[in-house]
Amino acid sequence: MKNDVWPMVHAERAALIEDLTRLEDWQWEQQSLCEGWTVHDVAAHLIGVARSTKVGFVAGLARAGFDFDEQNVRAVARDRGASPRETLARLRQVASRTSAPPAPRDSRLAEEVVHGEDIRRPLGIAHTYPQEAVVRALRLQAGTPAFFGGAKELTAGVRLRATDTDLSIGDGPEVRGTALSLCLVVYGRRAVLADLEGPGVPVLGA
């Protein structure tokens, strides 16, 4: 169903807010899994993700010269508070929103799963995500061309096989790992390559 993502998205936002409330200020400045961004930056990005609308996304992209990376940088600067407490308050304010940019609804799940791990893994915080959310995020990225920020070309020629659920994508040398690890890798988190096995791993690593 079109709107069935929102209960999962809202649950993940609430869980991350709960984890963030326990952090010391210095932990907010830790490097996240997202290259070039601290934990604080990723939290600010998630505020922009929750606030995003179709019209606002297109307008922001135009102001950034149709450069997706520049648009993200500007949004982080806009939404990041002067302190972790202020950023956390802003995240709470938008946590129940159901607006979205012109993108597949499953991209909302991907934002919460991938960026949740961007924050949690470097801080040693364990969290169990709904398997459905992880699988849908993984399938979305594996089927989306690189031009639109996906990994269709990256995963071409390999077979992704989850070891913790009935999931297999593609054909070729096998890459084995949990659905979450496979998901993170196809979203560009190279640090997670070490969690994968199989003859197809060097293909993804290249």
Explain the overall architecture.
It is a single chain. The mean pLDDT is 92. Strands 2-1-3 form a three-stranded mixed beta sheet. The relative contact order is 0.13. It is mainly α. It has ten helices and three strands, in the order ααααααααβββαα. Helix 2 (39-51) crosses helix 4. The chain is globular, with a radius of gyration of 17 Å.
List keywords for this structure.
206 residues; mainly alpha; three-stranded mixed beta sheet
Span between N and C termini? 37 Å
Can you tell me the residue ranges where pLDDT is under 50 for at least 5 consecutive residues? none
Instruction: Name the helix and strand elements from N-terminus to C-terminus, one letter apiece.
Output: HHHHHHHHEEEHH
Please estimate the helix content.
Answer: 40-55%
Strand content: 5-15%
| Main beta-sheet annotation | 3 strands, mixed
Strand order of the largest sheet: 2-1-3
**Shape call:** globular
**What structural category do the secondary elements indicate?**
mainly alpha
Radius of gyration over alpha carbons? 17 Å
Mean pLDDT: 92
Q: Could you give the count of β-strands?
A: 3
Instruction: Provide a count of the helices.
Output: 10
**Oligomeric state as shown:** single chain
Write the layout of secondary structure elements.
Layout: H1 5-21, H2 39-51, H3 54-63, H4 68-79, H5 84-94, H6 106-123, H7 131-142, H8 152-155, E1 159-162, E2 168-170, E3 174-177, H9 179-186, H10 201-205
Parallel strand pairs: 1-3
Antiparallel strand pairs: 1-2
In short:
This protein is mainly α and 206 residues long.
